[in-house]
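Typical record is below.
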Amino acid sequence: MTMDLRRPLLIFALYVVLLQLADVIADDESIQLEKVTVLSGKTAVLPCDITPPTLDSLYLVLWYKNDSDFPIYKYDARRSRENYRQQQTQHDSQMFLLQQQQQYGQPPSKSRIQFQFDSHPALLLLNNVVDPDEGVYRCRVDFGRSPTRNVLVQLTVVVPPQKIRIIEDNRQVSSVIGPYDEGDQLSLNCIVTGGRPLPEVTWWLGDKLVDYTYISTSETVVQNILVIPKLERRHLHATLRCQASNYFGVRNDTPSYPVQPYWYQKQHSSFHHREHQHAIASSVQLDLNLRPLWVVITGAERPLSAGKSYTFECVTGGSRPSVNLRWYLNSVQQPAQERMTNDGSNTTSTLKLTPSAKDHDAELICSAVNPLLDVSNGSVDTNESTSSVQTRRKLIVHFAPTAQLELGRSLNPDSIAEGNDVYFECRVRSNPPPHRFTWTHEGHNIKENASAGVIMVEQSLVIRRVSRFHSGRYSCSAVNAEGSGFSNAVQLRVMFQPVCRPGQKILYGVAKQDAVTVKCQTDAIPPAHSHRWAFNTSMLDVTELQENQILQNNGFAEGSVEANGTSILSYSPQSDRDYGSLLCWGRNAVGEQREPCVYRIFLGVRPDPPNNCSVLNQTADAVEVWCRPGFDGGHPQLFQFEIFDTQSAVLLYNKSGRYPHLRVGNLESGVKLFIQISSYNQRGRSPFVQLEAYTIKIADKQTVIMETEGWASMLGMASGIPVSIVIAYVIIALVARFRRRNNSRSTQGERVPRKTHETKADTTVATNVDQHQQSTEDPDVIINRNSEKASGRSGATRQ
């Protein structure tokens, strides 16, 4: 019969014995009940108090099991103790063993039972107990005169659990488990099979009880599920032990208080301090991935300068395994400019950064990320997660100013007129703030002058009562410790009424019934869109020229053309009364011109001679002549240069042009030269201005004339050197005669009184503005014995 089948029979027999003993107890109040628990295979110790009452003596001790009437052990104190012990122990032991063999088929074994009558209390020892030894034992003690004493001992044989397993996710685990991520939840199930009574199954973290909430899933299986909601750093390499035990050397009572998990557990000393030397256990060790504990940024504590390179270091520790360090600036991961080092406990990353102005007040972030816990895919996380830890540093960047110039927002740039107040605002971004501002107008620095209406207030420039001279481009600049910044240019356009354009021709010489073109040139913003003309005689009578008068006055004024603020009038004097002044007024959107432009119309005269003439840059083969033009007599003038060989009186060069400047090259070296300079217009020729010059002497240097006329060159080539000499003398004679004739004619021409000439002398420099007319008088005359060599070449450089 197996142990599982015998167990119900034993329980039933024990129940019957207890009922019988209950009757005995009712009759004998001296019966005592003891409970003894023993582990299978160990020695059971059954106590029995055999101490006789006072004035009495022990007679006999009998041990019975269950409801048997046959004692398993007998001790008769009336006999000799030693002899009786040896004989009776041997006899009763044989009886007991025989009884066990007959009832349960157990093999006989000597010395399984012993009785220690001299201990207090007396003890019956059952060695190597087995499951059938379980039951109720009765110790009967007889005395000489006192009533019989009965002691009941209930013996419970404990069968230890047989198998223990730790299960995770439906698989058995042992040794090292993991790695788990820090913060994960851990769930382990400890399953114990076998044992009688059913064992207690507990979880221990090291030497600390953490969970004893076990349950029985069947008659032979007990389990305890351990749940740790959040694994912490202290759990790294920690040992979790599941322990099963159903024997503690005391009563195997289930605690009356509710059992709670270890994080709510109540201390119960009688339960927690039981002996566990007979328990079976299984252990696992935890492996964890840990996030970094700390991270710091070092280096470059002072304010940074834009454009300079700085080195930052990021140090972190506490991670398992070692971390990856990532740098972010303005939430953008920085390129791979870092160097990684690992000393076993800490990790260091070096970043070289060149900040710019836009990085001021930006956050530099160093993020330490455990690669086994990272789920960010490289993107910056504004909050720390279970996988990373961050540190931030706000950058203070110093940079040179950047300036933006604007016209005052309340101003319309297209409607600013003379007399208005204007202001500019220089918007500057810099760190540190600028300590100096500079304002420029057309590239020239502006100085504050409150009396002149120029006021500078911090980042603003105020100009009161602007005039047309304030028009132009304005800019500002700012300076701080990092450098200077220059703004854009802002164009200020001040609208004003037309005024006469400086430098224009105001003297016009014209003969009667000849026509002259008079230009009225004005400056204005916006440009003049119309002009008004009037005539002023010498008697100061002002006659306004109406458009219908211009058309009906027999060609008095042939027409008027206007463009770009310029009005053109073709004027023809018919009599002496038509000489005087032409007046011109322009008009634009601002208004009409206040002071008219005045143009003097007079009878033309011959020009004045050039002045301030000098010879420059005399070399071995060239000379250069410069003059200032004289009064042009009211007509366009030309200038004539004649160069003679002083020794031979040969004309070497003859040239006319619009400018009083000439350079002649390819002359003979060591030659003394005579130079005559004059100006002429349609009214005649001025007196000559005479100069002397020479070329530096160099041996065997031949003279080459730079510029000749085509016909002279052809003549020289055809006739040869002798013919050229003859023709030169003829031409000299003709020129001399031509001069005498011109001089006599010029004395007969009409001239403006010298007083009028002298009053206009200061303005004659500008009277040769008319550069489009060409004169046909006084053709160039070039005669030289070497003219065949200089044919087709130009000897003058005109400016």
The helical segments are 3-27, 81-104, 269-272, 547-552, 710-746, 754-759.
